[in-house]
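Case 453 in the screening queue. Each case pairs one protein sequence with one candidate compound; here the compound is thiamine diphosphate. For every case the pipeline is the same: read the inputs, emit a complex structure as tokens, and attach any notable structural observations.

Predict complex for case 453.
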Amino acid sequence: MNQDAYNHKSLQSNDGQAANGMSVMAMGASTGCNTVYGSTPPSNPHPYPWMNSLFQDGSTVSWLLGESLILQHARRSVAPERLCNSLLEAPETGDVFTEQTHWDLTRLNDTLMTEQEIRELPKVWIVGGDGALGDIGFQNLSKVILQNRPNVNGIMLDTQVYSNTGGQNSDSSTMLGGYDMNQFGRQSQGKLIEKKNVAEIFTSGHGSPFIAQVSMANSARLYKSMLDGLEYRGTSFFQCYTTCQPEHGVGDNMSAEQAKLVRDCRGMPEFVFDPQAGELSQECFDLKGNPSIKRDWWEASYSDKTKYNYTVAHWAITEARFRKHLKLIKEEEVPEFIHMDDILVSISQDDIVNRRIFDINHRSYVPDFGVYFKAEVDGKFRYYSVSRQMVLFAVERRKAWRMLQSKAGIENLDYAAQRALLKKVDSGEIAAEDLRSKPAQLLQAELDAISGS
Ligand SMILES: Cc1ncc(C[n+]2csc(CCOP(=O)(O)OP(=O)(O)O)c2C)c(N)n1
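Case 453 output:
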């Protein structure tokens, strides 16, 4: 009784499973690479309740595991502890077991638990890939996240493909394609469908979950946000970029480095959405950790200190999966091509949606392998021409980043300037030929006008 009463007074540390005791966590895993490297039956290494399921069930089964843990916790931990405590304190308080106490203890669930009793609850983790959680199991995950249960958390290991079955396209796959069901070839260079931003979806229309898009690009931030999510009274969900070495074509030791590059090129920016911060989206979103947070692109530097925009194309040269989108060219050939930064001035995502980028007479026309960029590889400057699709991918990722910035209340002047410029071009105030011949100059003039005002 003394032990139970003592346990009731403050949060007790509990590392692992006590003999005949309750586990501190459980896991509901959707089949994917996580179940292959995380458990190869019959040698299951998980020292806590673990189950594996088809895609559509993982989230809901995990939720139900969570519900049963709440009842177990109430009956086997909270009720006896509360009772022992009040019996021992009876001489001082007098009233031990009122009608209300009886009512509460016989109907105990998380609604009647104290903050501390909630924190002691064993946690359940929903684990799956982007195929499982973003595509096929999406509806079930959406349902579970909306419940905002106190001990249910989810993590989506986003490899941008169905890795375990050979790299099929998922809704999280990049537009670049070049893999199963999203081919790169003469007729189709990938897909024109934008990336499904799974974590971002849950920051809207899904009640009050704690959401983060973090990765090993910044392990301290990853772990901090996970601890914050575990502490949160409701559900937390994490979308974590993860390399798939064979499908991405990167070295086994490159996970953290590639995660950093995909973050820095706006391929998958980091954010934390904490619903406790307020009731406005700009209060809840935190974009710290992304470079050049107010700009379209990270303003990176070559070793000679000159600055350049680090776009998705710069990330793409580091992964073999994108090789068909890149052709090495000589420095002397550069004048035949349009610079990536220049062409990006003349295109908006709306031009892609309306397919104007294929119209040779439109300002947003993108010539296939007619655009180039400069990169520093192993200390040497290299020049690459890129597929049309690479340019479209840059526009799509830029738009997704701008959306995120606006949700976080960040004003992006690059966007404001580009919008003002394109408005002038489309209304005939500035000639389309001028946009083609001096885009950087025209953009700078708009930037100056905005910053000066
Ligand atoms: C409903 C359903 N359809 C198909 C499968 C077969 N399947 C098992 S693993 C897998 C690919 C997993 O891809 P993803 O969820 O992205 O995880 P990853 O392997 O990339 O970590 C598929 C298609 C399944 N388990 N469930």
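Case 453 observations:
- The chain has two domains: 2-8+24-286, 298-452.
- The chain has 20 helices and 16 strands.
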